[in-house]
Design goal:
The protein has about 230 residues and is mainly alpha-helical.
Length: about 230
Amino acid sequence: MKKIIIALLMMLGAVGILLLITLTPLFSGIARTVLEWDKALLLWINGLHSPMMDPVMWWISAKWVWLPFYAGLIVVLALHFRKRAIPMVLLIALLITLSDQIASGLFKPLVERLRPGHEQGLQDMLHYVNGYRGGRYGFMSSHAANAFSLALYLTILTRRKIKWMPYLILPWALVVSVSRIYLGAHYPTDILAPLFLSVFISNFVAAIYLYITNKYFKDETKSDSDY
């Protein structure tokens, strides 16, 4: 229980740090410099567009196309963790709820940073796929928050039993996140911020999983009980 509380406090602290950086004028000088780099990197990545890459990035950014991938992950977890895969999979619902609500329910309405496609002076410089520009506000990306949180959560809990998992799930999260920049839906910092936050979200939910398995699955092996 102590680990859960510590992980929760660290997650809340990370949220507080990001809110402090984005909402206070204390960092305004640094922010202006970062925003210039942000814009330049966005234009470079978005400028890599091509008739071949556009449908690929559009497909990668879609959510429903990954359903078979998620189903495959569940099967792999069940084969390796047996009964302990049940709380591991169920807690993914909590993980995604936390990451999605912090990104879209907290930061987007508070920070009110316009997406590139809604920014005057920038929107006409971007290439759009299928006319997609996203909703009004973009900081931070819920796609990136969800993908990185899931990737880090599974990396933390499976890296000892499924050694290849990080090499699959982390590049997947990165590619999904970069696709959002390619499509002009997000600035790079819209992706980097949830990457930072997902470290703490994933550790918090992983701590809950370990508490549950150590308490209720003592008859199972404990090779994943420390991280």
